[in-house]
Structures are given as structure tokens and as C-alpha cells.
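Annotated sample (chain length 110).
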Amino acid sequence: MYDSDKRKLLSLVCHGAIFFSTLLFSIGAPIAVLLVSDDPVVKENATEAINFHFNVWLYALILVPLSFLTLGLAGLIGFVLHWGLTIMAILHILQNPNQPYRYPFIFRIV
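Output written by the structure step:
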């Protein structure tokens, strides 16, 4: 049996790492948790967080130039989705730490 508090904390670290804007930390924290943890739920959350972070960078490459054409509307929509989905993941982990969170609208690379 896995410790629920440890599971919750490590899963929150994975999903919450995106709040730190440095690429090294936002991707590095979930990778480190993935490599260190033996908990299957934490590993799934870490993998999902890594995929989400890669998707955020991919969508940013598309939305930044597009926001110049739409006077910032595309960037605003991307910003709201980015933070909204991250907050939804954190709330899901806080409510049910024994179930991994799956982000909608992303490509799963890892």
C-alpha cells in the first residue's frame, strides 16, 4: 500500500511545477519524480504532467504568432486554458489523490 499523503504531495509537485516559469524546473520536477517514485499513480501523474508541459510549449509556438494577428485574443485563450487546466489538475489531486489526472486536449508524447 502506498502512502496517500506522499502520493498527493508528489503528484502536486508534478502538476504544480508549471507555475515555475523556468523550463528546467517545470519539466525537471516531474521527470525527477518519475525516476524516483515507485508509486504507479504518481508515475502516471508525472508522465501526464510532462506531456502537458510539452504541449504548453508546442501550443505557445503556435499561439504567440497567432496572437499578433488576433490582437492578443489567441494568447488570452491559451493563457486561460493553460492555467485553468493546471488548476483543475491540482484540484483533482487534492480531492482524489488515488486517481491519476488526465489532461484533455493534449498529445501524449511520453
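Annotation: The first helix runs from residue 4 to 16.
Annotation: The chain has four helices and no strands.
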